[in-house]
Amino acid sequence: MSSxxxxxxxxxxxxxxxxxxxxxxEAVRQAGYNTKYPDKVxxxxxxxxxxxxxxGKHRVEVEQKTAITFEYKLNKLNVIANDPxxxxxxxxxxxxxxxxMQGDNAPEKKESQVTLIDERTRLIFDETQKIYNxxxxxxxx
Length: 141
What we know:
Elements: H1 9-21, H2 24-31, H3 38-45, H4 49-66, H5 70-82, H6 88-102, H7 119-139
């Protein structure tokens, strides 16, 4: 199993800087790598299994700390919708948003076909159809 301990000091510094900035080339420069191509070195470092694993864990932690879940949003809207001190307009809006989130107000799907073709388009279509028919007729004679 990979861990940060498998990284050398420069790689560890790169990892810390990358997680802070999100910029691999800048992290390479600041970590002290002596290269003309920090973007390429950064790309290579991002492929190191221990670095990838650490970045993945870091992202999961950040997402868990900052994520606002579907349930959280519904609970907040429910509080607003049921708060007697909130204006009726705001309460109704909260209910509308909850309905949208839960798909309760999805419009019924109706099959319909609308044909909007102007006269010029109709003439072009007719001429094209005639030419196509002529070609087919000559091809199979």
